Amino acid sequence: MEYLLTSMTFLPLLGALVVLALPRDNATLVRWTSLVATVPSLLLGLWLFENFDRSVGTMQFVERYSWIPAFNVQYIMGVDGLSVSMLLLTVLLSPLCVLASFGIEKGVKGYFALFLLLETGMLGVFAALDFFLFFIFWELMLLPMYFLIGIWGGPRREYAAIKFFLYTLIGSVLMLVAMLALYFANTPHTFDMLVLMERAPTYARGFQAWAWIALFIGFAIKIPAFPFHTWLPDAHVEAPTAISVILAGVLLKMGTYGILRVCYPIFPLATQQYAFWALAALGCWNIVYGALCAMAQKDMKSLVAYSSISHMGYVMLGMATLTPQGMNGAVLQMFNHGTVTAMLFLLVGVIYDRAHHRNIDGFGGLASVMPVYTGFVTIAFFAALGLPGLSAFISEVLVLLGTWQYSQPLAITAASAVVLTAGYMLWMLQRVWLGPVNEKYVALPDLSWREIVTLAPLAVIVIVLGVYPHAVLDLFGPTLVALGDTVSSAAPVVAQAALR
Amino acid sequence: MDLSNADSLAYHVPELVLAGGSIVVLLLDLFTRLKARLGEVALLVVATSVLAVGFGAGADQGYLFNRMVALDSFALFFKLLLGFAALGAIWMSTGSRELDGEHPGEYYSILLASTVGMFYMASATNLLTAYLALEFVSLTSYILAGFLRHRARGAEASLKYLIYGGVASGAMLYGFSLLYALTGTLDFIELGHRLSTVAAVPGNGAILFIAVVLSLAGIGYKIAMVPFHQWSPDVYEGAPLPITAFLAVGSKAAGMALLIRFFYPALSSPAGDGTWIALHGVGWPALMSVVAMATMTVGNLTALRQQNVKRLLAYSSIAHAGYMLMGFVVLSDAGLRAILFYTVVYYLMNLGAFAVLLLVVNQTGREDIEAFRGLAWRGGAPAAIAMLIFLFSLAGLPPFAGFIGKAYLFAAVIEQKMWLLAFVAAANSVVGLYYYARVARAMFLDQPLAGDPEIAVDLSNGLLIGMLLAGTLVFGLWWTPIVNFADRSLVFFGN
Q: What's the pTM?
């Protein structure tokens, strides 16, 4: 399995080329080919899950080739626990999203080719260990995403697409500047992340301080952290269902992944310095702010979008604590949010396909009309609000446990916000699924086999991880402990005692 | 090596071929019935010249014609690039409907002559040659820009170009005369030696500064840098499209070459560790970094509002001149290498964008963004995808060559820790994306209206676009050959 990560990353791209070569008028063939094209990566991902050595926190399956010697750019791929969990999430969601996109009628070839290109970009980001390569994959996702929202999206798609594009690009150019500065801060100049991490103690404080902020803004836009979040509701509301799933399920994780992969090990000093305000306090604010905004939404999809902002806050809060519980909780939350929010967007998509609107007030009593659908809705909603026994509960509790050791006021705030989450979730459940049946929608058909196939695997994961979180937790435990140690042992602990 | 006039001719084949070709084309037009094939003849002439340049690659380096022009790797690099720019422009001309029936003899003859002038701009080592070359290129460009005489915009373009050009070259000439007055020499290298003593004399600093700024006017006008850029949008819009492409790619590269040769070996000296030391007391790097920031910002902000794609590309090319100047002000070999690198990728992506525009203009007769509406959905999908790649490469997005070019420029700036410049350029990249995306949006996100004609890709244009596209894609992922070539080309005067 020498080329494991490379194959995993580029097989979808190969699939995209095959899809482009297919005849235009045979949409069914295009759809099924695309589905098949996502399967090899999934199988490789499962093989990786099986064979990944959980006892160590170091990089595994490393591939290293010289690429452009004159610029010392290398092709380095490798995974630790953190990246494995994210790769796994990506390869799991991709086939489901292709399946959920079978209803696309316009420009089918283009849609699926772009989707597969997007998958390559996402997998590449999680596997790349050379900063330059990482950056290329990072940017590679922009183009397909722009078109997937802009061509196949809702009524305000053009606005949403360009907003997403520009926001992300602002982050990327800052990242580019910081990346090049980092390159020149080392002699010999290098983009090799492993070397950049080793040399972490040698970077000047001032350099660390501004480079951290430049990178952080780039990543925070993706998370999205307040006040860089405004692109998200637009993009989510306008994007087609499957793209919302990818956006919330995978792309948002890249923000927090980037912080853990780049900011933490390369700039440990700056991380210590900024973690409280930029991650913990801001994360806490994200939790509360996202939840309050979600409560005010009239559109189901934008409610789910704001709930994402809120849930990503837990990730930021957890990773800021640097405690084993907090960090494990944060990464587990990344995974769980990926699956839960994917379910939520798919479920909203189901009702939108039938009723062609998503107004929370426009329904009522769907539970008696669509019982199977409502079953899945219940699982997803209760997972999202953190019901014990379902996956998100574990990760949120871990985050809160970590936060309690770190800062009790923040822990109390974050814990209280769970009530808000329960509030908007249950309120939506009540207005849409319970109560008297809306006469207009008595004849809505229940889930089709295709919809069940897309939802069921996610529901199984949500339930299994609620009972046996170690299936995923074990993957990144050692990695995160090592990472936390790197940061906390780097240097003088900056006192925030007064605030704790 | 330092050759006399007669001995130099043997090393001068590329220029001789072009000059001879220019006359041959004119004669063929007069005495034969080959009118329709003159484009191919011109193509052949330039191809021969490019081959001749290529064969000269390993030859001795030094001076020709009693130190009037240089024969060095730097000149070789730009001659190749300019040759390719001329090839592209002629190729586009043969497939352009605008130019049908428009005196092909004169057209190709002048185009070839203009290329000779650019070759000299790239190799001039003497203020006199530099001035003559620049004037020659300007004069031929005025005619080419106004070649569509029946078009009001063409005449306007030509006249504007002429007047601006006249003022700029007058200013430059005055600057040169001041330099001569201060030093008593016109030779770049000699100028550099003597200026270091001249600059030390109290009171000379101000004169020297004025001389440099005035000289800059002429060259800056060629590369369309702020504040000498106002002519370019009107000229770009009014000129025949292949000429616009030629000016945007060739003229700019030739100007860059002259700028570098004048400011580097003449007004600064190598420090030995890959960096350069600017002539004491003139302060041109600071001045030029302000100019660079202004150029990219003005170009990008003005491009935002354009409706005409040709004008949009004109403003974008002003912005790109600004990006290239980033490599110019950092006083390092890395910066020069980045400029050379950028001129190559800029050639590929900008000429590509013009080639697709030509396709659309040929079939719709329109140049505005509306003409691109729904291009992807009315038979032009390959052209639309190609245009998309060229535009996003211009915007500096990976995995296209434009990103690598920009990364090198940024790297050169960041290596010298010029943070302000880096952040201004970064902000500009974001602005740039917005207007390139407007064209992309029209092509893919908008639906065609009922009356919009189908766009088909013909063989000739398709081939050109395909080659440029291949370059833009391949060099985005594997750019070792260009970077090595750029590195080898940083040899001035055979030193």
A: 0.94
